[in-house]
Design brief:
Strand order of the largest sheet: 1-8-2-7-6-3-5-4
CATH superfamily of the largest domain: P-loop containing nucleotide triphosphate hydrolases
Structural class: alpha/beta
Shape: globular
Helix content: 40-55%
Distance between the termini: 55 Å
Largest sheet: 8 strands, mixed
Radius of gyration: 31 Å
Length: about 725
């Protein structure tokens, strides 16, 4: 992480180590975490000492703690600026469940409820207060804040200040007034997505010129990026293949460009047996709220949405984000895909796009009412995204490079790394395609020009006499799918544009001239049929050892009951990783619960007994109550289930010798005897014991000579087990 130091003013006299000690105490007591991530500690320390800062951190990187913890340590109330009225209630409910005094002020509250919140703020009862930006800049609200103690201002989703961005909110630009009206109150602006232009705009528009700037890595290594080409198969059919192969029962988000496509896709998925809900701005508020609530509280639910959905969604177990169309920019793509895998577990970012996406988005830019400079920036952003989609190299390297971060080696976790695309010299076929567009008058779209190239003499082509052109039929050696892929690449590379009027016709750009004259060379991605993936069995990926799976299921069941009783999403009660740790460690007291990640004092008081009661009904096998390592115990647990060494090796994907090594440790600890685990008959055991006696193996402890004397007939691990069995 990089940091630009800022002059810091100390508003009160508490020693620095005391402030951070208090911050660490709040982190553990309230949130249940034992330590800060490195960037969190530095950011929090800056804010605790009264400094302003800009923090760029990836989704799931712990941004909220950077203002929540200082709000609990500094005097006064932390004021959180959020554009997400629909999610304030969820955020406040989650904090209340942690024992934090939090509230929100927005248009969903009636006057009486607003008065109660304002009175609690004035009385100093609130730790955090969430406010929409348009309310915060009203004189009445500013006056209320000025009369009482404010701990800090946190401006969440700060990229909304950028007029060039995908989430521009004009009211964010008025937040500059906070620097003028509250010069002694620290301000922290946070976002998960901002290129260099947007960062500078945030700094300028929010008066953060003297703020410390912290930039965490943008990399989300648990997310696999895949961009599929729309060819002869529809995007929906490609999507279904992806879901069947990778996520047959998982929760996810699917983005579409239009409201109509959202509703049709949700209905189509529901017809195929998936739990799918539509979400877009045209739906009634109560319908949107119900869909959001079901998604947050349920398992395996898919939300099909426009970009109206997603900002601020904290659901940690979203296993995939899919796009059925190109987003408008890399920033939008990065932010939307970042909603997958917030829990750090493996997740997928999958997208299918075709030539029409590119044409349509460029037409929208051309037809927009923005100034020429605005349109130029939007074209540049779209071109960068198209470049990402069409590139043959590592997508993660390109994605991070866009945000100014360098990844030294290809990631190994994107489609291009896993299945490198083939490229070949496509100069000649590109010239044929461009010539066909030119000779047909630049008045037709992809389908028509493709028909000309492959020599399809339909009624329109005959009526236009285009069957008489020299380009008619010169592309018969390629399929229509291959020609469509080539046109998409030519558009991505800037050789073709769609017409500005929106008729879908293709027009040559100035860049096409050198290519037609043979002065440029065109390297073409070769479109290949995707290999058919095996369908998964519909069960979630097992994330715990088999001996703990039943306990984990029971913990999830009690979590669901606790969440329903508290009217909270299950992940607010406890995230999956917390339940997994409970299943693995099996604490037996409330004191021991304090060692579990994600369980703070308030949650232990509320839910600890219920979790302990469940754990108490699952007694560990006596063989597994020991001080051996976790990996040895995983082998022993498989042995308890009746698996032999060969089956354990296959299940755990380890060498059979390693399994015998684990058995040897257990034998030496007095937990097993060799005859319990070794596939030896009496004669074989006697043969080995005779060699041990002759070579004094039990005295020297050296197995090498015995192994050689037995001509390698027995696995080294088997000999190790017999040696341990004294």
């Amino acid at each position: 992480m990089s940091a630009r130091a800022a002059p810091l003013a100390l508003p009160f006299a508490a020693p620095p180590d005391t402030l951070m000690d208090r911050a660490h105490a709040r982190l553990e007591e309230v949130f249940g975490y034992k330590s800060f991530r490195s960037h969190q500690a530095t950011i929090i320390e800056t804010v605790l000492h009264g400094g302003d800062c800009l923090a760029l951190m990836p989704t799931g990187g712990g941004k909220s703690l950077c203002y929540q913890v200082p709000s609990l340590v500094r005097d006064g109330t932390g004021i959180i600026v959020s554009p997400l009225i629909a999610l304030m209630q969820d955020q406040v409910d989650a904090l209340k469940d942690l024992g934090v005094n939090a509230a929100f002020l927005n248009s969903t509250l009636d006057r009486q409820a607003q008065n109660r919140v304002e009175a609690d703020f004035a009385a100093g009862k609130l730790d955090l207060l969430y406010v929409a930006p348009e309310r915060l800049v009203q004189e009445r609200m500013l006056s209320l804040l000025s009369r009482h103690r404010v701990a800090l201002f946190a401006i969440d989703e700060a990229h909304c200040v950028s007029q060039w961005g995908h989430d521009f909110r004009p009211e964010y630009r008025q937040l500059k007034i906070l620097a003028e009206r509250f010069p002694g109150v620290p301000r922290i602006a946070l976002t998960a997505t901002a290129d260099e232009r947007t960062r500078q705009e945030i700094i300028t528009e929010l008066s953060l010129e003297d703020a410390a700037c912290f930039i965490a890595s943008f990399d989300r290594p648990n997310i696999r990026y895949t961009i599929a080409e729309s060819g002869s198969m529809s995007s929906r059919e490609k999507l279904w293949q992806f879901l069947e192969a990778e996520h047959p029962a998982d929760a996810g988000i699917i983005y579409c460009l239009s409201r109509k496509a959202v509703e049709e896709t949700a209905g189509w998925l529901a017809g195929k047996g998936r739990k799918a809900l539509a979400y877009h701005a045209g739906l009634e508020p109560h319908i949107r709220a119900a869909a959001q609530t079901k998604f947050l509280a349920g398992d395996g639910i898919i939300i099909v949405a426009t970009i109206a959905f997603g900002m601020g969604i904290d659901k940690p177990d979203v296993r995939f984000v899919a796009h059925l169309n190109l987003p408008k920019s890399i920033e939008a793509y990065y932010q939307e895909t970042g909603r997958a895998g917030r829990d750090g577990e493996a997740a997928n970012a999958w997208m299918a796009y075709g030539i029409q996406d590119v044409v349509q988005l460029r037409q929208w830019i051309a037809q927009s009412e923005g100034a020429d400079a605005f349109k130029q920036v939007q074209r540049q952003k779209l071109d960068a995204l198209i470049g990402l989609a069409e590139m043959p190299g590592c997508r993660r390297q390109a994605l991070l490079a866009y945000f100014g971060e360098r990844l030294a080696e290809p990631c190994g976790n994107c489609d291009n790394c896993l299945t490198p695309p083939e490229t070949e010299d496509g100069t000649v076929v590109a010239q044929k395609a461009l010539s066909a567009i030119y000779r047909t008058g630049q008045r037709f779209g992809v389908a028509y020009v493709t028909d000309v190239l492959v020599g399809k003499a339909d009624e329109r082509i005959l009526r236009n006499n285009h069957d008489k052109l020299s380009v008619f039929g010169i592309g018969k050696d390629l399929s229509a799918t291959a020609w469509r892929g080539l046109f998409r690449q030519l558009i991505a590379a800037g050789y073709l544009n769609g017409d500005d009027e929106g008729h879908g016709t293709l027009v040559l750009t100035e860049r096409a001239r050198p290519l037609l004259r043979g002065e440029d060379r065109f390297l073409m991605r070769v479109t290949r049929a995707a290999p058919k993936k095996a369908k998964r069995d519909g069960k979630p990926v097992q994330r715990v050892a088999a001996e703990n799976a039943s306990l984990l299921d029971a913990l999830k069941a009690v979590r669901l009951k606790l969440a329903a009783s508290a009217k909270l999403p299950p992940y607010v009660v406890a995230q999956d990783r917390t339940l997994i740790e409970l299943a693995e460690k099996r604490p037996s007291s409330e004191t021991a619960l304090h060692d579990i990640t994600g369980l703070g004092t308030s949650k232990i008081a509320r839910y600890g007994r219920a979790f302990l009661d469940v754990i108490g009904t699952f007694k560990k096998h006596p063989l597994l109550t020991n001080r051996l390592s976790q990996t040895v115990n995983q082998t022993l647990a498989a042995h308890v289930r009746g698996l032999d060494a060969e089956a354990i090796a296959a299940e755990r994907r380890i060498e059979i010798g390693t399994v015998y090594g684990h058995f040897a440790e257990a034998i030496e600890a007095g937990l097993l005897s060799a005859k319990d685990v070794l596939p030896l008959d009496a004669a074989e055991s006697d043969q080995i014991e005779a060699v041990f006696e002759r070579l004094h193996t039990r005295d020297t402890g050296k197995l090498g000579p015995a192994f050689a004397a037995l001509d390698g007939q027995f696995d080294y691990g088997i000999l190790k087990c017999l040696l341990a069995d004294t």
